[in-house]
Specification:
91 residues, alpha+beta, 3 helices, flat
Length: 91
C-alpha cells in the first residue's frame, strides 16, 4: 500500500506502519528521517536502482532520468562520516 498522504514526523510514520500491521516498509525520505525510523525500531527497505539510458528497460522514470531496479536492501544503520572528520582520522 502506498501512502500519498504526507508525514509530519518519523513517529507518525511508525504509528501508521504499526496501525496498518504491515510486514515491511519502503521509505523515500531524508536520511535524518530514516535514521530516526531505525532508532524507533523500524528497519526499512531500500530500493537500489541503477540509472540507464534506455527508457524501454527502465522501471522508473523521474525528472527525465531512467532507472532500473537492481535489488532490495534492508537498512539497519546509518553512519555519516564527514570530510573534516576523515582528515582528523589521518592525523
Amino acid at each position: 500500500i502506498q501512502s500519498a498522504k504526507p508525514f509530519s514526523s518519523a513517529e507518525e510514520i511508525v504509528g501508521r506502519f504499526r496501525a496498518g500491521n504491515y510486514d515491511d516498509m519502503v521509505v523515500v525520505a531524508p536520511m535524518s528521517v530514516i535514521s530516526h525510523l531505525i532508532d524507533l525500531g523500524i528497519k526499512p527497505l531500500w530500493a537500489e536502482m541503477q540509472q540507464v539510458s534506455d527508457q524501454s528497460i527502465a522501471d522508473v522514470t523521474a525528472k527525465g532520468r531512467h532507472y532500473k531496479f537492481v535489488r532490495w536492501r534492508r537498512i539497519i544503520a546509518l553512519n555519516f562520516k564527514f570530510a573534516d572528520e576523515a582528515q582528523n582520522d589521518n592525523n
